[in-house]
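Bit of a strange request maybe. I'm writing a small parser for structure token strings and I need a real example to test against, not something I typed by hand. Could someone generate the tokens for this chain?
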Amino acid sequence: MATMAFSDIVRKTEQTINKTAVKFASKRGWVPAISGYTGYGSKNSIRIFGRVLAVDPESPSAKQPGAHPDDRPEQRGWRQFLTVQLTDFPFTVTIGDKEVHAQTDANGYIDISMDNPGLEPGWHTAKISIQGAQDATADVMVADSDRPVGIISDIDDTILVTWLPRAMVAAWNSWVKRTNTRMPVDGMAAFFRRIQEAHPEAPVFYLSTGAWNTYRTLNRFVRQHGFPRGPMLLTDWGPTDTGLFRSGMEHKKVQLRNLIIDYPNMTWILVGDDGQHDPLIFSEVVKEHPTQIKMVAVRTLTPREHVLSHGTVAPLAEVAKSARAAVPFIHGESGHELIEEFDKHPNN
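Reply from user aminoacidic:
Good idea to test on real output. This should exercise your parser:
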């Protein structure tokens, strides 16, 4: 109860600070600007993401639609988190021949689901409009609902070196290091290419506990290092009704289940690492949906990486034996090792 009460105080403090920042920004002549994120869809529905912030009229985001404030590849990571969000701000999304009107949430985010207005599988563009700003666009990947295989991948320590479980190391990597110095996990881009050789046109979804503030950096990272293009399902850090921080595990579980529901005819290859709780989350999903999980691939951190991640040489979680028995399970310290394991399975 004390934690919940304290989280309420922190949440209200955050809201008060943002309201003060909005008033200050308004007096300084700041203007609203839209950031569009990558959404996804099926033959039945589509989901569109974005955010509305107040920005300096001289910033890139005010002059260039869709740009994030201080959106420079060489910037320090902490700049991504300096935002003034516009809450309950009316916006309009237009895609195909359909138009939807709604308002941003308490943190300025756009997250809407709507019926697919007849979009065929492939990449499409939604237009996001607000009063007082240039229109922005949000890419939407409509995946073929009858594709036999899809890929859901973690980001941190699976494709991008972050050592996320250790807060101070992760904070240094996310906040202090320049955003263009982030390093890919060895061989993981090649591993994704190998999966897509075996399963042509398999859609890729990136699922992370990372904040939406890092979306531009992550999107740029994926392009620069040869990873497949795909929607990113991130989250919003900060206090909630039930705690000081959003549950990363719960976020991943919810998004995994949403994808399984949205694409009921698809089987999934789940890709993660053993530095956080991916194996445990994956094992629960396998138990709940054994016929819709084709394979689990876990990138195992080295002993040194485990120490840097969470202070011990052992993984934080392991896939339950029953889950391993239900679907093929492969692991390796790099993408190259995962390729070797992947090729050993006749039904990969």
